[in-house]
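From the pipeline queue, job 12 of 40. The input is one protein chain; the requested action is below.

Action: predict structure.
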Amino acid sequence: MGRALLTILLLIILVSPALSKVMSLKVQDFTYRRYEGSELVLKLKSAYFERREDESFSAKDLELFSPKRGIAIKAKHGFYNKNKDLFYFQGNVELKTDKHGDIYTEELFYDIKEEVLRAPARVIIKKDKISAEGSDLYYNLKSGEFRLKGSVRAKFSL
C-alpha cells in the first residue's frame, strides 16, 4: 500500500509543471515510463534517482530502454542535462541495439534532439560471431549511420 501511494505521489510531482519547477526529488528503486498513445517510447529504471530543480537528474544503476529507437542502455551512473537534452552514461556501460549488436564502453553520450549516440573512449562491439574493438563510436538513430574509429580490430569466430 505504501509503495502505491509513493508511486501516485511521484507521478503527481513529475506531471505537474508548477511543482516540477519548484521541487527536487530523491527516490530509491525508481521506474519511469513514457507512452505516446498506447506505445511505450521510453522506460527509465534506477536503484537511486535524484531530480534537481532545473529538471536535470542523476541516477545510480541506470537502465534506459527505448523500443521505438531499438536501444537498451545500462550503466553504473547516469546523468541527464535538461538544458542540452543530453544523457551521459558512465561506468560499465552496455548498449544493446536491435541492428548492430551489443556495445560495451565506459562512457556514452545520448543526444536526444539529434538522436545520436557517441562513445569517445574504448568500445567493444559483439554481434553474432564477430567482435570489434575501437574508439569513438558514432551511431545516428535516425539515419542508421554507425561508425567506429581509432585502431579498429575485428575478430571472427567460425
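Job complete. The longest helix spans residues 2-15.
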